[in-house]
Specification:
The chain has 111 residues and is mainly α. The protein is built from four helices and no strands. It has a domain of 39 residues.
Length: 111
């Protein structure tokens, strides 16, 4: 990806001067005080740089895992609408609560 060099202070001043001497667009004066000077790279690059993103979760309440399910099962779950993953989590919790507690057998000699 190629990016253009940042505008210099002289180039910015020249653009402001040209804007003040040229007739305003659509009979409206351009307000340069709200302008943002970017390092270039196009609109997509500028928007990506300005977009807020979520930081890392400091104390995750859940663990992310990968699970393989049949396509028809996933399709039906997704078709149920937003929040389907939360509903699957609740259904699994409910199922676990109904199961008898199974303890893992300790190997001989383990403390």
């Amino acid at each position: 990806m190629t990016t253009s060099k940042p505008f210099s202070a002289a180039e910015i001043a020249a653009a402001r001067k040209a804007a003040s001497t040229e007739p305003p667009l659509n009979s409206q004066k351009v307000d340069w005080s709200q302008g943002t000077v970017t390092s270039g790279g196009g609109v997509a690059s500028t928007l990506a740089g300005l977009r807020r993103t979520r930081g890392p979760n400091k104390r995750p309440a859940k663990e992310q895992v990968a699970i393989r399910l049949d396509p028809d099962v996933v399709g039906a779950l997704r078709a149920s609408g937003p929040g389907w993953q939360t509903r699957v989590n609740s259904a699994l919790k409910e199922w676990l609560a109904s199961q008898p507690v199974k303890r893992k057998a300790r190997p001989p000699g383990a403390v």
